[in-house]
Amino acid sequence: MLGDADLDPAPLAGRTVAIIGFGNQGRAQALNLRDSGIGVRLGLRAGSPRADQARSEGLDICTPVDAARGADIVALLAPDEHLPAIYAEIEDALKPGAAVDFAHGLSIHYGLIAPRRDLDVIMVAPKGPGAALRSLYVEGRGMVALAAVAQDATGAAWPLALAFAQALGSGRPGAGVLRSTFEQETVSDLFNEAAVVWGAVPALLEAGFETLVEAGIEPQLAYLECVSELKLLADLVEARGIAGMREAISNTAEFGASLGGPQLVDDGVRARMKAVLADLRSDAFARSLSAEAAADYPRLRAQRKTAATSALEAARKSLL
């Protein structure tokens, strides 16, 4: 893990960064770079609902093509499924030897974008949401980030990627920059999202809630037990690790966990996790994501509607 003492800001000095997108990562990275003294201009499509907010925060706005034209680094920070079309739009505006930066490796790893051979292709991937990246920076702290290079046309792509990560605040104490690859970042990130934190954990919370309610436990109590305590677990694991978390809970809780955990997470679960990982190593996920976007997200819309009207959500609202 690299810290500020290991990172050289010089490769980014005097360079202009074009940020395309002002969502989860776009806003945070644009503001962090600007506050680190880097020249930033923001590329937004005409009529973007984010434009007024960006102007209120003092950022220069232009179209994606105008932002990319003449920029030294162009950071594509819009949603993954939109990046191929955005790259196609701005490609002719990219100057020879410019760098194209990503916050996630999906578009490059799965071949959805094939950058010109004269361009550096780098990735700086903060390991958390943009809101946290920004708030940590403002507090004088930082967020761990992965850095990777997929194409080193100039011979200077690695120093540039590391300087970019430092300007985001990722080299600060308590954080750090880890060298990686587009493949490793993409596969591990998608696996976490599909099979662990964002996929399995919410499904497990819902299943636990439903099991208690079906057994006659009041929904509010079921919610408190199965959902609300997750933050306590997350805080303990963050502060102490999994081993330290187990030392911090009661003997009753630890003993119950030692019995229930292995019954639920057995070899069958691990086999299904390996199947998810195999799908992600192929291009099946990328093709499904593209098809979902082309159809205007029917799966995601249905899932959001179901979640918003669930008994679990009703229990949550009743506790507010």
UniProtKB/TrEMBL annotation:
Its EC number is 1.1.1.86. Mg(2+) 1 binds at D189, E193. GO terms for molecular function: isomerase activity; ketol-acid reductoisomerase activity; metal ion binding. InterPro entries: 6-PGluconate_DH-like_C_sf, KARI, KARI_C, KARI_N, NAD(P)-bd_dom_sf. Pathway: Amino-acid biosynthesis; L-valine biosynthesis; L-valine from pyruvate: step 2/4; Amino-acid biosynthesis; L-isoleucine biosynthesis; L-isoleucine from 2-oxobutanoate: step 2/4. It comes from the Bacteria. Substrate binds at S250. Mg(2+) 2 binds at D189, E225, E229. Gene3D superfamilies: 6.10.240.10, NAD(P)-binding Rossmann-like Domain (3.40.50.720). Keywords: Amino-acid biosynthesis, Branched-chain amino acid biosynthesis, Isomerase, Magnesium, Metal-binding, Oxidoreductase. Residues 1-180 form the KARI N-terminal Rossmann domain. Belongs to the ketol-acid reductoisomerase family. This is Ketol-acid reductoisomerase. It comes from Sphingomonas kaistensis. The lineage of its organism: Bacteria, Pseudomonadati, Pseudomonadota, Alphaproteobacteria, Sphingomonadales.
